[in-house]
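INFO worker-7 received task bundle
INFO bundle size: 2
INFO processing item 0
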Amino acid sequence: EVQLVESGGGLVQAGGSLRLSCAASGFTSEHYAIGWFRQAPGKEREGVSCKDIDGRTYNADSVKGRFTISSGKDKITVYLQMDSLKPEDTAIYYCRSEAGYWGQGTQVTVSS
């Protein structure tokens, strides 16, 4: 069974940076698709960044040029580097596997 555990969230001032981690286990291959999503209070969950099985990455327009998804050398950790953070980036951030497994989420709060 796939398990995903996010970490790295916290409180940061606008313009600052955070790096989120998603520790993945249970994949049968080191090549897998995975994505980062977020849900702000009162809003629907939305996709932020994803990586396909070939390693190509995609970002939502709202985070292009500021967020970067990458894989760790261990092949089981996926990172979301978030730079130039804005108050509207405040949300719970989740990672999700292609098969639909979700992590528990990590809170990111950006103060103005």
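INFO item 0 finished
INFO processing item 1
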Amino acid sequence: EVQLQASGGGLVQAGGSLRLSCAASGFAFDDYCIAWFRQAPGKEREGVSCMSTRSTNIYYADSVKGRFTISRDNAQNTVYLQMNNLKVEDTAVYYCSVRLGYKRYWGQGTLVTVSS
């Protein structure tokens, strides 16, 4: 069974930092790109960042470039999202996700709230 467990969200003031973690199981972690998405209240879910299996290709949404850093520990089957200089507009539920074949799997999400 594919499982993605996101954690690390919380309440932080603007300018602060948080590190999200996504622990994965049930599939060959090393072979897949793990992505972070977020969904703010009243908005559609959007892609935030993704790192390829060998960390050779990394994607960041323009809105987070220079502030967020994705990393992965294949030995621990975990992907991290270091979020610095957080802004109020970063407030959202953050999800980690993996696409296996034609199906995309989602974790349960972790809430990040940035106060002004």
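INFO item 1 finished
INFO post-check item 1: The first strand starts at residue 3 and ends at 7.
INFO post-check item 1: DSSP finds no helices and eleven strands in the chain.
INFO worker-7 idle
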